[in-house]
Amino acid sequence: MAGRGPAPKPAYLRQRRNRKSTAVTLPVPEQVERRRPPALPNPDGRTWHRLTRAWWRRVWQSPMAQEYLPTDVDGLARLALLVDDFHKAETARERRELMQEIRLQEARFGLSPVDRARLHWEVERGEEAEAKRRRRSVAPEPPSEPVVDPRSVLRVVK
Fold it and tell me: Which of 31-40, 76-85, 103-112 shows the lowest per-residue confidence on average (mean pLDDT)?
């Protein structure tokens, strides 16, 4: 008499089928081809805050920029309007409300580590990052001088 329970599934049915075909490995920021960012759209003739212009440049110099299509420029431009309004907001309440919408919109473009994980985008690790990770995983060397136990000063009190 063989083992209990149903027979095991055939091997071709046991393979995982939940691999994402959209998974992408993005190059290390140093390896990204630095292309000139598109002009920051200005539909209402506003003067952009300096932090908004810096944010726009960083977005287009990031590894994620290679995944953006020309149609994504419109969505990023709307996000830039929100970011600009955030930097120009006068009250904390205005900033909080804008921050909530910015967070939702940034998720669409993989601008945070959590968003990149959700999109199955992984930034390739550079040699420097790998070296740091290896150094952290190696056990620290023992100290050259003997370590004095701090409990040695304790005495029993009667």
Answer: 31-40
- Structure-token pair, residue 141: 């060397």
CB of 142 closer than 8 Å to CB of 101: no
**For the whole model, what pTM was predicted?**
0.64
As beta bridge partners, residue 26 has: 123
Q: For 92-101, what is each residue's pLDDT tens digit?
A: 999 999 999 9
